[in-house]
Amino acid sequence: MKPFCLAAVGADSPDKQELDVEIFSKAKVVVDLLDQCINVGELHHAITAGVISAEEVHADLGQVIVGDRTGRTSDQEIIVFDATGSALQDTAGAIAVS
């Protein structure tokens, strides 16, 4: 398997699922909002399947951005970014790129 970063942005309800939960067992997991991802994101399905626990999530996006936690640290590392959507983060991102 080639190393990669994978952004899952389509799951925003408990019934939606984009990824095979097994990817979470091989990846460093970063989320936009942990509580929201636990309830409605791809992380929700991986936790329900027993593949990962909430405590095993590496970081939330804010922690990576400000440098409190690392992002991807090697070419061999797989990152899954689970984003369920946050109006505040979306607005801040739009302002930053405009």
Topology diagram in text:
Layout: E1 5-8, E2 28-31, H1 34-40, H2 42-48, E3 59-60, H3 61-65, E4 79-82, H4 87-97
Parallel strand pairs: 1-4, 2-3, 2-4
Helix pairs in contact: 1-2
Beta-strand residue percentage:
5-15%
Question: Averaged pLDDT, please?
Answer: 87
Q: Helical element count?
A: 4
**CATH class, please?**
Alpha Beta
The helical percent reads: 25-40%
| Strand/helix succession | EEHHEHEH
**Largest sheet composition:** 4 strands, parallel
Oligomeric state of the chains in view: single chain
At CATH level 3, the topology is Rossmann fold
Instruction: Give the number of DSSP strands.
Output: 4
Q: C-alpha Rg, in Å?
A: 13 Å
Task: Describe the protein's architecture and organization.
- The protein has 98 residues and is an alpha/beta fold.
- The protein has one domain (7-97): NAD(P)-binding Rossmann-like Domain (Rossmann fold), CATH 3.40.50.720.
- The chain has four helices and four strands.
- The protein has helices spanning 34-40, 42-48, 61-65, 87-97; strands spanning 5-8, 28-31, 59-60, 79-82.
- It has a four-stranded parallel β-sheet.
- The chain is globular and about 40 Å long.
